[in-house]
Amino acid sequence: MSFAEFGGPDVLHLLDAEEPHAGPGRIRVAVRAAGVNPFDWRLREGQFQGTRPIDLPSGLGIDAAGVVDEVGEGVEGVGIGDHVFGEGSSTYAEFAVLSAWARMPEGLTFEEAAGYPSVMETALRVIGETGVRTGQTLLVSGASGGVGSAVLQIARDRGITVIGTAGAANQDYLRDLGARATTYGAGWVERVRRLGRVDAALDLAGSGVLRELVELTGDPRKVVTIADPGAREFGVRFSGVAGSVPDALAETVRLLTLGRLRIPVEKSYPLAEAAAAHTDSQTGHTRGRRVLVV
């Protein structure tokens, strides 16, 4: 899957390309599923050209799960035929090179596994950046998507209380993940206050709520966003630089193995329908993850 110009989902095209190969410290997988992330469609629209420009044409996708079929020089602990999930580049493809990976835990499907790498790295990073600690309360705006689902479960594992905002249809989903849930819309700030004190806050949706999050926490340094480019105006931290993906994958495996983590796949799409997956992702209101099946 590739795009030769920036624009809407219609710029995506499935085409034949040369197979990539695993260089030193890398592995190649026969992709079985690829995660669909907001980063992907923002890249497709050209939103990052001012900060991390790319040359066109370009592939898409950073998350994948698949079967190892090529191992680069210096790689140990993984072999041909192993089932792995991780991060790489141009993963919307039949074959992709991964730079970070972990073995898939028993019982996990490729579709499920493909939805974890980026969201877990992001969730672990932003929780750390807020400074929230055990016994405190974290407010999460846009809590029902992939990153929000991960944040809620990581927080629960660490003894952090979460207040989550989401659409009316996702209230029970948030409660099932251990959050105190409330809806968006008029009066949401007061509804949050009734649910308890807020020690730190995350904006995962970019829905223009930074002023209110600063008001609820009392300190812009306790608010982190991954989706609102106006963060600087409010003194809020914009988190966009990835942390350690290997560490995130190790924590993912730990929580999955202990039965403390599950991010559902809301919908799977054939690779040829990547444009439809992007269209649906951009509408928001996701519960869990969307993935492409190769």
Automatic annotation (TrEMBL):
**UniProt subcellular location:** Cytoplasm
Q: Tell me where on the tree of life, at the top rank, the source sits.
A: Bacteria
- All copies of domain Enoyl reductase (ER), residue ranges: 7-292
- Which InterPro entries does the record cross-reference, listed alphabetically? ADH-like_N, ER, GroES-like_sf, NAD(P)-bd_dom_sf, Quin_OxRdtase/zeta-crystal_CS, Zinc-ADH_QOR/CCCR
What Gene3D superfamilies does this protein's entry cite?
Medium-chain alcohol dehydrogenases, catalytic domain (3.90.180.10), NAD(P)-binding Rossmann-like Domain (3.40.50.720)
Q: Which Pfam families match?
A: ADH_N, ADH_zinc_N_2
Q: Which keywords label this protein? A: Cytoplasm, NADP, RNA-binding
Q: Where are the transmembrane segments?
A: none
Q: Does the keyword RNA-binding apply?
A: yes
Oligomeric form and interacting partners: Homotetramer.
PANTHER family, per database record: QUINONE OXIDOREDUCTASE
The name this protein goes by in its record:
Oxidoreductase
Q: Which organism is it from?
A: Streptomyces rubradiris (Streptomyces achromogenes subsp. rubradiris)
